[in-house]
Specification:
By secondary structure, the chain is an alpha/beta fold. It has seven helices and five strands; from the N terminus they run E-H-E-H-E-H-E-H-E-H-H-H. It has helices at about 15-30, 50-60, 75-80, 95-110, 130-140, 150-160, 160-185; strands at about 5-10, 30-40, 65-70, 85-90, 115-120. The protein has a five-stranded parallel beta sheet with strand order 3-2-1-4-5, with helices on both faces. Strand 2, helix 2 and strand 3 (about 65-70) form a beta-alpha-beta unit. The longest helix is centred in the C-terminal third of the chain and has 28 residues, at about 160-185. The model has no long low-confidence stretch (mean pLDDT about 95). Bound molecules: 4'-phosphopantetheine (PNS). 4'-phosphopantetheine binds next to strand 1 and helix 4.
């Protein structure tokens, strides 16, 4: 069997532990894996393309057959330009299936020689998505364990006011409940 070069395309805004898990799995079975970050001018991403490139390069530095690049336009055309014969996509749950199937079939219509391969990330990441990570982080909520530490740090830097407000509220709540507890103990 010939050696396969694969493209793992996505928005990665931001990269999650689920993405990293899939990249590590893909790196084991493909000779070369290119992680292609979509440069999408229509969406307004939380992280710039440069930030996403930097984060993913740091996170995959230990994987010698993985390369991080950016692309625009049709994914199938980009795949062809880098000689990838396979597209890697992750399926976390049945809910992903319909969208992924539709996309894979459209891509097959556009480029019949390009195969899509689906892999499942570890089940502990089955509910983790960039969208939910952004939502939690925008309210200053904890994202530990959902994203790699470098990404967590970047989110904290970018959303510093939200995190400060959230931490202050948590501290105020803790102080108020410990005050109430002391009063209750005095009465008893
Ligand atoms: O991380 P995402 O947002 O689920 O990734 C979606 C992505 C980037 C793989 C998809 O939107 C894509 O391939 N866009 C490039 C434009 C394209 O080829 N569209 C046709 C898809 S059927």
């Amino acid at each position: 069997m010939s050696k396969v070069s694969a493209l793992y395309p996505g928005s990665f805004d931001p990269p999650t532990n689920g993405h990293l898990d899939l990249i590590e799995r893909g790196a084991k079975i493909f000779e070369e894996l290119v992680v292609g970050i979509l440069r999408n001018s229509e969406k307004s991403p939380m992280f710039s393309l440069a930030e996403r490139l930097e984060m993913l390069k740091t996170l995959t530095a230990h994987l010698k057959n993985v390369r991080i690049e950016a692309f625009h336009g049709l994914m199938v055309e980009y795949a062809k330009s880098i000689n990838a014969t396979c597209v890697l996509r992750g399926i976390r749950a049945v809910s992903d299936y319909e969208y992924e199937l539709q996309m894979a079939l459209m891509n097959r219509k556009l480029e019949p020689t390009l195969e899509t391969v689906f892999m499942m990330p570890a089940d502990k990441y089955s509910y983790v998505s960039s969208r939910l990570v952004r939502e939690v982080a925008q309210i200053g909520g904890p994202v530990k364990g959902l994203v790699p530490e470098v990404v967590e740090q970047k989110l904290r830097e970018k959303l510093e006011p939200a995190y400060r407000f959230h931490d202050e509220m948590q501290e105020a709540t803790a102080r108020s409940s410990s005050g109430k507890e002391k009063k209750r103990k005095k009465k008893v």
